[in-house]
Amino acid sequence: MAGTKNGAKEPKLTLKQRLRRLRIEMSTANLKIYGGITAFFYTLSMSVIQNGLMGAQNYTQAELADLMAKDPNMMLIGTWGSISQLIGGLSIPVFAFLLVEGFVRSRDRRAYLGRMVLFALVSELPFDFAMYGRAWDMRGQNVMFTYTVCLVVLCGLKLFAGQKGMRFWVVRIAIILAGVLWILLIKSQFGLVTLALVVIYYLMYDNKGMRLVVGAAVGLTYITAPLSTYTLWKFNGEKGKLWNKYVYYALYPVHLGLLGAIAYVLAR
Questions:
Q1: How far is CA 129 from CA 40, 66, 165, 244, 249, in A?
Q2: Going by C-beta distance under 8 Å and a sequence separation of 6 or more, which residues neighbour residue 216?
Q3: 209: burial class by Cβ within 10 Å (0-12, 13-18, 19+)?
Q4: Which residue among 2, 191, 197, 260 is least packed, with the fewest CB closer than 10 Å?
Q5: DSSP for residue 13
Q6: What distance in Å separates the CA atoms of residue 222 and residue 65, rounded to the nearest whole number?
């Protein structure tokens, strides 16, 4: 049995003390890994499962439903696709939360915004390839464009933070509505719910419990998104250890391209 330095036996830990040692804490790095893994499943569902295995792009919703009803194998594949999308929904509040944390803590917000714009542009062709099976498609834009709009909205809210009275609220509402309009125009992925979460997390930044509760209610639009609330609650405010930030950003277009290529091969 282990002992202390002077040879005395260590005191036996109570159940409560053991649970404290096992408590989970999430750093920024942990949240990024968690968000990245769960988001991967959404792309997997939309590209490899739906476009590659099911050929969903070749059918209308009604035709696909009829095909699944007649073919048990298609039904099974569709079920796995739905499960993967549900897992992917867990990432939505996590990335909205990280975006706000990054904005609040960033020493150079212009560089942060510029980085988001750059990777939004770089990711668009792989996104279209993975989601729609073609190199260029205007039906929707990748989620990095959503984050770009959210950052612009946050910059606007920060810029006019010193306003007071009715003018203060009018300006805030106008900035948020401009973000909503922008997202509706470009049709970016997870747009409205992400913007809503970002605004909530930012405006309620000093009230951790309230912002997570309200955020969970808003996240219900994606069913599983509120399940990430506990993960966000365990955020300890530390950066943690992660690879180079540019490598992390690059994983988004890379994984889109790879899964898109797999879907393309399966669909042939």
A1: 15, 26, 48, 26, 18
A2: 93, 225, 226, 229
A3: exposed
A4: 2
A5: P
A6: 21
Domain of 217 in residue numbering reads as 25-267
Render pLDDT for 5-26 as a digit per residue (tens, 0 to 9).
455 555 676 655 554 555 678 8
Q: List all residues 6 or more positions away from 158 whose beta carbon is below 8 Å from its beta carbon.
A: 103
- Count up the domains in the chain and report the number: 1
Cα four-point dihedral sign 173, 224, 249, 134: negative
CA–CA distances in Å: residue 42 to residues 155, 220, 263: 29, 17, 14
Cα distance between residue 171 and residue 80, in whole Å: 45
262 domain-assigned? yes
Within-domain flag for 14: no
- For residue 188, the SS3 value is strand
Angle (nearest 5°) at CA 156 between 151 and 226: 45
pLDDT digits (tens, 9 = 90+) for 192-208: 999 999 999 999 998 98
| Model confidence, pTM | 0.85
pLDDT at 2: 47
What pLDDT does residue 148 have?
A: 96
Let me know if residue 19 belongs to a domain: no
pLDDT of residue 11: 65
Specify the pLDDT at position 261. Answer: 94
**Residue 137 has what pLDDT?**
85
Q: Is residue 94 part of a domain?
A: yes
Which residues of the chain, if any, have pLDDT below 50? 1-5, 19
165-186 helix and 191-203 helix, angle to the nearest 10 degrees: 150
pLDDT of residue 38: 95
Residues 234, 239, 244, 250, Cα dihedral to 10°? 40
